[in-house]
Design a protein that fits this description.
This protein is an alpha/beta fold. It is built from 12 helices and 13 strands. The strands form 4 sheets. A 7-stranded parallel β-sheet has the order 3-2-1-4-5-6-11, with helices on both faces. Strands 7-10 form a two-stranded parallel sheet. Helix 3 links the parallel strand 4 and strand 5. Helix 11 packs antiparallel against helix 12. The protein is globular and about 60 Å long. The chain starts with 7 loop residues before the first strand and ends with a helix.
Length: 355
């Protein structure tokens, strides 16, 4: 057994939020493979943890604090997985400072402390949804994402900074994982908010192809990237590209076609639909109008990762969790339960074959 001093120290930021806590827990409890290093996991967050994570070495610290570099040095941190990010649609000085300036300051601290690897979570939405997009967007495609919503604009600025950072500090391996629309029973994302609306607003006459990925596969891929030294930028999505109409059908949502002017003008429309914020749709209208399908070749061949859930399985599970028995007849509930179990058996079969 490796000695404590031989353990690779991994620091996860934002362990007070969903992604940080889930990744830290997975690293702590997931058995390592024969060639994988033994890990010591440190978690940081600017606020105290509401729920303790057993086995986690927690340090309350803000990544923007000038003394954060001392944590990295003192603990001899090898890998940093940065998940302290606010996915707000609305911008503010505080959110910009956390998302963009916080990432910049953290990367600077990593360079000063001699950290060997950084893993960042991003989105395929930064490619943008345009009529001129090719059928599949590779990792080399220009980043032309909409800057209307804060979280997308901040990701664009972070990735632009990372491009320069990789050139200036080549000794640090940077792995950026760009996820398609994330869906799951526990996470809070633009896609889950879109599908939780009473009605799913769509643009009249448009049915773009869409990709999703299950929250468990997001967590698994982050831990996969942490444990393996594979620098680069990677698109990630579940197998299966679906038209928006099919996506809504699998999620048991009724689409509400809307005239374009109303969609882009928008004020008051989402309020009429019962949305929590009348000024915003959960997903920007452009992303419900044009395709933004990512190529997954690098995910399979270079990153060596394959999502467990297909797109249809992820959506069916989401619908099953949302539509509890009190919202549907017993017979319909049994149909969903049968589909869920069938999907589970199919996933387990694929996992056995992969092993």
């Amino acid at each position: 057994m490796a000695k404590r001093a031989d353990k690779r120290v991994t620091l996860v930021t934002g362990v007070g939020n969903f992604w940080g806590s889930q990744v830290a827990s997975r690293l702590l409890y997931q058995p390592r493979g024969g060639t994988e290093p033994e890990l010591k996991v440190i978690g940081t967050d600017s606020s105290p943890l509401e729920k303790e994570i057993e086995g986690l070495d927690f340090i309350q610290a803000d990544v923007r604090n000038p003394l954060f570099v001392e944590i990295l040095k003192t603990e001899n941190v090898h890998t940093v997985c940065h998940l302290a990010f606010n996915e707000s649609v609305r911008d503010s000085e505080a959110i910009f400072d956390l998302n963009v300036m916080g990432t910049m300051k953290l990367l600077g601290a990593c360079a000063e402390a001699g950290v060997k690897k950084v893993v960042l979570k991003s989105s395929t939405a930064i490619y943008g949804a345009r009529s001129t997009n090719p059928s599949y967007l590779t990792e080399k495609h220009p980043l032309q994402g909409s800057q209307t919503y804060a979280y997308n604009r901040h990701l664009l600025e972070i990735e632009a900074f990372c491009n320069g950072f990789r050139r200036q500090v080549p000794q640090i391996e940077v792995t950026i994982l760009r996820y398609s629309s994330i869906i799951g029973p526990k996470c809070d994302t633009p896609m889950t908010r879109f599908l939780k609306e009473p009605l799913a607003p769509v643009l009249l006459g448009f049915d773009p192809l869409m990709q999703v990925i299950h929250e468990k596969d997001v967590i698994d891929s982050l831990t996969h990237a942490i444990k393996r030294d594979i620098p680069g930028v990677f698109n990630l999505a579940a197998e299966g590209v679906l038209p928006l109409s099919r996506l809504c059908g699998l999620a048991a949502k009724v689409p509400l076609p809307m005239v374009h002017l109303l969609a882009y003008w928008g004020v008051g429309v989402t309020k009429a639909l019962g949305a929590s914020d009348a000024r915003y749709w959960p997903i920007e209208p452009d992303y419900l109008r044009y395709g933004w399908v990512a190529d997954l070749t690098e995910m399979r061949e270079e990153l060596g990762f394959s999502p467990v859930y297909t797109a249809e399985e992820a959506l069916r599970e989401f619908a099953g969790k949302q539509r509890l028995r009190r919202y549907m007849p017993e017979s319909r509930s049994l149909v969903y339960e049968e589909e869920r179990l069938r999907d589970t058996l199919e996933r387990r079969k694929r996992m056995r074959e992969a092993r």
